[in-house]
């Protein structure tokens, strides 16, 4: 998803078919929230709508339809799903997919601590903003005095 095919030998001696890690570029341009939104969109492209998860079969279909990767073998797709399937259910949840994509990016992993701190700070700001309207509400009026 966040890789770009490179043809021929690159400056670093990469072989034809090598991939460039574009996750750090995406993170730099989009910020943490934007990168996570893109990863979630990628998840939706590859997920089986009935199951709400990426299965080996939905990965094969999605890779062919959305990414132009024709002819992925069933075992290749199953191995890719197993790589990130932490709960052992044979499919990738959205969280498992996002973790896998980040983990497979050497550039993102090099800056993982700073990236994680930014993600946590963004989440805390969202939670504070959501709680702020409730904190600003005027207190209820006192009960009417009985005569």
SSE blueprint and pairings:
Layout: E1 3-5, E2 19-21, H1 23-46, H2 56-67, H3 74-84, H4 94-103, H5 106-110, H6 112-136
Helix pairs in contact: 1-4, 2-3
Helix/sheet category: mainly alpha
Rounded to the nearest angstrom, the radius of gyration is 22 Å
Overall 3D shape: elongated
Order of SSEs: EEHHHHHH
Number of strands: 2
Helix content: 55-70%
Spatial order of strands in the largest sheet: 1-2
* Gap between N and C termini: 72 Å
Average pLDDT number: 80
Low-confidence segments: 3-16
By DSSP (H or I, 4+ residues per run), the number of helices equals 6
Quote the beta fraction.
under 5%
Taking the sheet with the most strands, its summary is:
2 strands, antiparallel
Give an overview in words.
- With 147 residues, the protein is mainly α.
- The protein has six helices and two strands; from the N terminus they run E-E-H-H-H-H-H-H.
- The protein has a two-stranded antiparallel sheet with strand order 1-2.
- Helix 1 (23-46) packs antiparallel against helix 4 (94-103) and helix 2 (56-67) packs across helix 3.
- The longest helix has 25 residues, at 112-136.
- It is elongated.
């Amino acid at each position: 998803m966040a890789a770009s095919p490179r043809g021929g030998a690159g400056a670093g001696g990469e072989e034809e078919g090598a991939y460039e890690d574009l996750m750090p570029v995406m993170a730099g341009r989009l910020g943490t929230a934007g990168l996570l939104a893109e990863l979630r969109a990628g998840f939706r492209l590859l997920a089986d709508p009935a199951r709400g998860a990426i299965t080996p079969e939905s990965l094969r279909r999605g890779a062919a339809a959305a990414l132009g990767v024709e002819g992925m073998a069933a075992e290749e797709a199953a191995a890719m799903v197993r790589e990130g399937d932490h709960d052992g259910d044979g499919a990738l949840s959205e969280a498992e997919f996002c973790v896998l994509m980040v983990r497979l990016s050497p550039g993102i992993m090099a800056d993982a601590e700073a990236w994680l701190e930014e993600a946590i700070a963004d989440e805390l700001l969202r939670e504070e903003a959501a709680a702020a309207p409730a904190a600003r509400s005027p207190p209820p009026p006192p009960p009417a005095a009985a005569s």
